[in-house]
Task: structure prediction
Amino acid sequence: MRAWFGRSLRVRLALFASIAMLLLNIVVGAFVLHGIRDQLVDIQAQDMSSRAVSVLLMIKDNRLPQVLEYDGLDGIQVVDPSGRPVTTTLNLVGLPRQTTAIPQEGQANAVADLCGLSGFPGQCKIVIAITTYQPDGDWIIYAFGPARPWYVGPQVIASQAALAAALVALTWLVVWRATTRTLAPVSAITRRLAEITAFGGGMRVPVPQSDDEIAALAETANRTLERLETAMREKEHAMDRQRRFAADASHDLRSPITAMRAQIEDARLHPDEADWIEVSDEVLASLDRLQAIVTDLLVLTRLDAGAPSRREPVELAGLVTGEAIRPREKQVVTDLRADVVVKGDRLQLARLLTNLMDNADRHADSRVTVTVRKEDGQAVLEVLDDGEGIAPEHREVVFERFARLDAARNRDAGGSGLGLPIAREIAAAHGGTLTVEDSERGARFVFRAPLHDG
Result:
């Protein structure tokens, strides 16, 4: 029962409203009963006073009998100026004065509910006191009548109880129906959320046709679900990318290890015939490739994790000059503007340039051209080779990790497949872009980044 009341908001609201209505009925009923009783007491007091007037006339005419008639009252007692009962009804004969509580000093007439009277043990009575002025002093006539109970009468209390029960039941019904109608959209939202939990995303909760808090709740829930669905898709895409990356990394790491194992096993089968200098050179070449792949993986890991780096003004022309003096197979031609400065990590930008120039050196026929300039308020670093170039449909593929085109596989057997992806990640980390753009011949890689306004 406690769990049922705790779970149902409609039951709780209807119960609270009904209890409030019951308390209100009790308070209002008490005031009503008090008012009815006061009115009935006033009417009864007037009736008793009119009946006691006949006794007053007897006193005026000096013709009081020894015993008075009841005349529809519970009793009458007449007290002389000395406070001694002079005459009474039969049931009060021989009893002392019944009360001195009324009338108060200065009062001619008074009405009171009194209990504990000697003539009416265990009972409460309505007592009327009427003062008559005589030459010998003030005479007091006491008239006694049945007291009204607090509930006035069985019929009155029954009608009050029936009215209160009807109002409580009506309150329960009205609040129940109102909350049911109000909470219907909440129930629909709850069911739809349960379906989303059970069957996945791609759904939205219904928005009621009203401009209230529940509609705002539904709209907020829909926006939250949309963000959650987007985050789940991005997470799934990232996980797929991570799985592909792990598979590709395993494959590329296995290749030099397999080559080294085959070279050493072949030499051990014919140790006397093996040229161990040549074998060591081949193993060292495989180790160099393995080391390059591991190094590139560590760099990508730091870039993916957003590791903090030192940012400082870097002049691209000086960076290119330092890289261009390194010996390469192809001729390096530069066209540099000296005042092109970006803010970033010098080592990472140098890695970006090195990767681009190494890639161009492997694919160029005879020359690599490096250009530094300003364009549309941005710093531009361009690396162009005179090789076969990259087809438009493959210009994004080359930035995928471990992705190498067929031409690259033939001419670039020693590459790790991570140089260009690392370069793009560095460009993105510096708020820039790295793309392959059109050229008359060869591949044209263009790095753009915000200028440092120093």
